[in-house]
Amino acid sequence: MFPIETFNLTKKFNGLVAVNKVSLKIKEGEIFGLLGPNGAGKTTFISMLCTLLKPTSGRAKVNGFDIIKEQNEVRKSIGIVFQDPSLDNRLTGRENLEMHAGLYGVPKEERKKRIDEVLRLVGLYERANELVRNYSGGMKRRLEIARGLIHYPKVLFLDEPTLGLDPQTREHIWEYIKKLAEKENITILLTTHYMEEADALCNRVAIMDYGEIKVLDTPENLKNSLEGDILMLEIKNGKNFFEKVKKLHSVKKIHIAENKISMTVRNAEKFAPKVLEFARKNKIFVNSISVRKPSLGDVFLHYTGREIREEMGEGKEMMKRRARIL
Amino acid sequence: MSELEGIYTIWLREIIRFWRDKSRIISSLVQPLLFLIVFGGGFSFVRLGSLSYQTFLFPGIVAMSLVGISIASGISVIWDREFGFLKEILVAPISRTSIFIGKALGGCTTALIQGIVILSLSFLIGISISPYSFLISIGLMTIISLGLVSIGLIIASFIETFESFGLIMNFIILPLILLSGAFFPLQEAPQWLRIISFINPLTYGVEAIRFVIIGFSYIPFPISLSIISAFSLTVILLGGVAFNRQK
């Protein structure tokens, strides 16, 4: 049995397709990442799996329970960390967790022990009796992760777990997530639009854009699938030079933006001098040239034809709409 | 069993939040008392038969404090939605009805605490309430405030942001109180005012409380009691439906 299984799961809002026929099977114990820009449909997808949104069509099972017919069973067996904060700021950290334990019917005699356990897991044991409003952004996130774990869920959903956190805090959160995946024997589905996050955490990654899964594999395989390295070239003049470069052998995929070009080539280290020589012959002034191994960002570019960016106008619209749903 | 526990949890949260917000407790106590002292004092020349105006006003002040705190606690769902906490509750494995009941009982409890405090201050203005009347008053206050919390919850399920909060205060809470005969005797009011007051369900609550506390009312007690009970029951049911319907 797969902890999460979806078949052609689809959600439309007033005719606009937010999630389009997504079929996935997520394995037990894996950290699975949904990678895509804001507005790609990741949160809508998760909201359906958490039974907060009803799918327009298609089916899904979470822990073997149907998300439409067996909502209560689904809810009992999952933990969720929402993208937007969902703590009660006027309660202490511990009180927030106690509330959760009550709502999920965790037996009284286990409660304290379990709450202490999850507090220690996210390193908040010492600060548990402070009001949440005095917590930092990172602490709130950790508390939410801890809260999502109290009732021993088999599946944990993390919707943009490090959104809006500074890089250092982000890496801390990654460590906690990795740790709990080992300790709690839990399947994690996380969404993110941070490449490094998907790369650092996930066993498998699905790239999502405009409500569809474009490609799904391990981060390693995804990067290898580009079959080459990334060569970036920035020039000062003569944009039609790019057209000529394209024709040079072994250039696989090209993306041109303004005066920059990025290409996927085999043996980029050897190819770079050739390009420079070629530019000199054509009287093109090269500003910079770089060679690197492909990142998930390049994979995203490769499969969607555009770069993933942090904020997109369309994404904001999507967020507003979602805010209205709840 | 877990539904009951869910109700208890949601109730407990309301109580903790209420208890922690000392400034709110104080301000919601001070406001009715100010009314009682200033109006009661200022209109001390007014006498209604053997009653002083302050005595007449006192039950109205009790009702007034119920209205404010009950409706506000129902509407607090808008805050929960705005700050995201509502999602945590909605995704929990308990029914919407249980959430509604927990919220309603929580709001009702805080309103009752308030009401009882004001009620026990009655000796300050020379009203003595028998233990029996005191108990009946608590029952009455429970009925009224459950209805009012439900009204708040209904409003919250239709309103999306708290920017409209001031609007609600001005267009619902204030008229509800002013037109309930809490401040003036209905039998002396002009015809048009009396008619509007008769449409206002709170009037029957005020009248019932007044009868129980000072043994005086314009509307006979059995009638006011039945109307306010029927009204509360209706809005509680409507509130339950509205809350279930809400996304």
What's the oligomerization state?
heterodimer
Proportion of residues in extended strands of chain A: 25-35%
Separate helix tally of chain A: 12
* Mean of pLDDT of chain A: 86
Radius of gyration of chain B: 18 Å
Mean pLDDT over the full residue set of chain B: 90
Low-confidence stretches of chain A: 310-318, 320-326
What is the count of β-strands of chain A?
14
Helix content of chain B: over 70%
Describe, in short, the structure shown.
Chain A has 326 residues and is an alpha/beta fold. Chain A contains 12 helices and 14 strands.
What does this entry look like structurally?
The complex is a heterodimer of chains A (326) and B (247). Chain A is an alpha/beta fold and 326 residues long. Chain A folds into 2 domains: 4-222, P-loop containing nucleotide triphosphate hydrolases (Rossmann fold, 3-Layer(aba) Sandwich), CATH 3.40.50; 227-293, Alpha-Beta Plaits, CATH 3.30.70.100. Helices cover 38% and strands 27% of the residues of chain A. Chain A has helices spanning 42-49, 71-76, 93-103, 108-121, 137-149, 167-183, 195-201, 219-224, 241-247, 268-281, 296-304, 313-325; strands at 4-13, 16-26, 31-35, 57-62, 65-66, 78-81, 155-159, 187-192, 204-209, 212-217, 229-235, 251-257, 260-265, 286-292. Chain A has a 6-stranded mixed beta sheet, sandwiched between helices. In chain A, strands 2-1-4-5 form a 4-stranded antiparallel beta sheet. The longest helix of chain A is centred in the middle third of the chain and has 17 residues, at 167-183. Chain B has 247 residues and is mainly α. Chain B has one domain (2-245). Chain B has helices at residues 2-20, 22-42, 53-82, 85-90, 96-120, 131-158, 165-178, 191-199, 201-214, 221-245, and strands at residues 47-48, 51-52. Chain B has a two-stranded antiparallel ribbon with strand order 1-2. In chain B, helix 1 (2-20) packs across helix 5 (96-120), helix 2 packs antiparallel against helix 3 (53-82) and helix 6 packs parallel to helix 10. Chain B is globular and about 60 Å long. The two termini of chain B are 25 Å apart. Classes of the chains: A alpha/beta (326), B mainly alpha (247). The interface between A and B is medium-sized, with 27 and 28 residues.
